[in-house]
Amino acid sequence: MSKIHRLSTRLANQIAAGEVVERPASVVKEVLENSVDAGATRIEVDVEAGGTKLIRVRDDGMGIAADDLPLALARHATSKITSLEDLESVGSLGFRGEALASIGSVSRLTLTSNDQSQSSEGNSALCEGRDMEVQVKPAPHPRGTTVEVRDLFFNTPARRKFLRTEKTEFNHLEEVVKRLALSRFDVGFSLRHNGRSIHNLKPALTQAECQHRVASVCGPAFMEQAIHIDHDRPPLRLWGWVGLPTFSRSQADLQYFFVNGRVIRDKLVAHAVKQAYRDVLYHGRHPAFVLYLELDPAQVDVNVHPTKHEVRFRDGRSVHNFIFSSLHRALADVRPGQDSLAGGSTAVTAEGETVDTLTGEIRSQGGLAWGAAQDLLPPAGTASGAAPYYSAAPSTAGNSMEQVRAYAALHGQSQELAQNADEEVPPLGYALAQLKGIYILAENAHGLVLVDMHAAHERITYERLKQARSTEGIRSQPLLVPQAVAVSQREVDLALEHSELFERLGMAVDVAGAESLLIRQIPVALRDSNVEQLLRDVLSDLIEYGSSDRIEAHQDEILSTMACHGSVRANRRLTIPEMNALLRDMEATERAGQCNHGRPTWTQMGLAELDKLFLRGR
């Protein structure tokens, strides 16, 4: 007697629903993607009880013909693809043909649509999860489609027990709407929960409107502290907004990455972004970004998981390198005073507000000082006893030439201040004083600038050491006794394939056998490191991401330590010219907004905030 039998349609759909429909948010995601694929320009979402009681999604897309309504609720029925060639270059968000059937198997689903092909009347298809029988009847409906899902998991109580509180489920659902709203600026979205309007996003067709939508979804503080990037290196293009390091987060909760309009979570992408922010983020913090990667659909496989959150790139190494290099250069190129922040704004807003580096709270702060490394401070000998404990100089902005010359004559700095009086005030302004031997006080066009002189000089020294390394190359030393490392055959093949990478980074690795490598030479800077573990980590990265920066990262850690010990210390008295020299070096040094450990190097207090402190104008 045969023990193999065919599953019923109902049970098969419920099994499939276990992969596609995890919670109310999953339902909204699938239905919204169908609406976007249908060419909708306006999508309305109504939910009750976090989506467990009711989910209603209405769009103004092309609609579904009456004859196609029963087929739309059947498994493996779709209008998106017809052949294997279509599957290899999917351009739509949906393509599996499983969503509506899976949703209908665990809820009371009503599908009402009108394609206006024959009349202005629409048709309704009712599907209840017990027997999956579809009933089609006329129903008034404008052009477009409405999907109504009631009593989710009413026939699978075990699944319903795993749902969280109403608030938690709605938060997940709202996040899905946010992602879709960020992926399609040309579509308007509205979201209501228990009759209360939560979001009402109009279509965004201009750059300013797109920025307004991002601010509505991610918060205005993100846009105030983000830079817009657009890098095009065919066949790849990366554009969007990346938060400055000062706008870091305690969790990775403000990270949106889209591939051809599809939001994804990918380890390769996350690794590339982490590498780009490595030198500028405080430990344990996470960057914020809204980024869009565009490439040929044939170069990315979206048929990896039923939820379509994961993708595979045909050439993952080139994608990783492109994302890393684009973000790395974009973050390094931001300089104070440039209108390169999102929306053409500077780092100082009209209210003088920004976000706290460690807590994320809004507070007054200025922009960041980043650029290309140049000279360091004047020799230390010029500072001893030259400046009083608190020495102040008048700002050259807004002062008359007589005032500047009077101060210059008193302090013997007539030539420098006279030149400054005729020039435009630089982004970090001119030094006024040194506070407690730790901070530099300066005045620029916006107000007061405070600089942590050790942190700032540490970054300048660090970037100079890195520049010297890239110019002079990496010094290596041969090992007296070559070190053998037992590895797998795959790792041996990788070592041979990437031999040039190891040579460029100062390591000489030879093959000693089918499953053995021999380390013959290492960088001088890493002579005290665990080179065997380093080699294993590099090979692991090559397997996972197609590239590795571990050797450079270890070298950077050593250079960072050297820069820390070689930078000006607290209680070192600096003269006004020395302080101004440090400010100018900051303006010309890459990533000067943070020290090597990710701490901020300077902050700004605008006149608006200073006026609030002293109740001026009230």
UniProtKB/TrEMBL annotation:
CDD domains linked to this entry: HATPase_MutL-MLH-PMS-like, MutL_Trans_MutL
Keywords: DNA damage, DNA repair, Endonuclease, Hydrolase, Nuclease
Entry annotated with the keyword Repeat: no
Example of a GO biological process term: mismatch repair
Gene3D superfamilies for the chain: 3.30.230.10, Histidine kinase-like ATPase, C-terminal domain, MutL, C-terminal domain, dimerisation subdomain, MutL, C-terminal domain, regulatory subdomain
GO molecular function: ATP binding; ATP hydrolysis activity; ATP-dependent DNA damage sensor activity; endonuclease activity; mismatched DNA binding
The DNA mismatch repair protein S5 domain, residue ranges: 214-332
GO CC entries: mismatch repair complex
PANTHER family reported in the protein's UniProt record: DNA MISMATCH REPAIR PROTEIN MLH, PMS, MUTL, DNA MISMATCH REPAIR PROTEIN MLH1
Function: This protein is involved in the repair of mismatches in DNA. It is required for dam-dependent methyl-directed DNA mismatch repair. May act as a 'molecular matchmaker', a protein that promotes the formation of a stable complex between two or more DNA-binding proteins in an ATP-dependent manner without itself being part of a final effector complex.
UniProt similarity note: Belongs to the DNA mismatch repair MutL/HexB family.
Protein name as annotated: DNA mismatch repair protein MutL
Organism, as annotated: Sediminihaliea albiluteola
Lineage of source species: Bacteria, Pseudomonadati, Pseudomonadota, Gammaproteobacteria, Cellvibrionales
Gene name, Swiss-Prot/TrEMBL: mutL
